[in-house]
Fold this sequence. Notes:
Helices cover 36% and strands 25% of the residues. The protein is α/β, with parallel strands linked by helices. Residues 296-310 have low confidence and may be disordered.
Amino acid sequence: MLDLNEVSMFVEVVKAGSFAEASRRLRIPSSRMSRKIQQLEDRLGTQLLRRSTRKLALTDAGQSLYDRCVSAVAELVDASQSLMEEKGPPNGLLRVAAPADFFDFFSMEWLPTFLTAYPAIRIEFVLSDAPVNLVEENIDVALRVLKASNAALHSRRVYDSTWHLVASPAYLARRGEPTDLQSLATLDCLPFIEKSRTAIWRFDGPKGPLEVPVTGRFGATVVGALLQAARAGLGIAYLPMAITHTDIRVGQLVEVLPGYRRDSGGFYAVFPARHRIPAKISAFVDFVAEKFGNANPQNLATISRSRNAY
């Protein structure tokens, strides 16, 4: 008869990619975990993992077992978590995936409030612009611009997003302020660098949607760097209002061509669809939505142009 603890450990080792990482996540000695997997292999009479000094690889039998068990183990974990939550406040490890520049716009000073309110929760942030598989990487909630397109995932919009043109007063005094979108071609723009290397800024103008190709001597892959470049007077940036409103209020940046902006959708919390959302996820998503909403009274926001898939 199979030992469900051994099966659960096997699934976690595969998801983590190593015994060491699975040991850290589960707070179980890696030697004990390795021994449990060996016992599972002995019970089944087949090898599940090929072990090497660099990585683990699944055998065909291991892949088959993982595919059959990963969902069932997740449901068992959810069920046990629900029972624990009924007896007390939200608790456990909360793994959050977010864009690499997340803390450029989500203040680290906000987190103590959450951790004080929920002392039994621990948080790990996985900061990357790379695509993330929530199940395989053991992610509880991902914060991204794109909402989920997979029926196995649930999305909650935590913020709206409006983009506009900004520049420093010093730059505009030196180069002049544009009078129309075509003027951007003669000025230094600060493009968001994407794979195509061709920067096109899209606007919702007074007469409808418009597209304008732009160039500049400075570009970056995260909006935080573009914000700093605009502050430094390197050119005109096209950024979310959520991250520029403070600079505009204090006069460090000014809006350029205010008749041309763009509502680019929203910022979403994405998490695995379940019959009952774990309390730790609900509490964190509510907290993020509240903080983003309070940060900008105009409720105009987003924090990244990441186009990552889930």
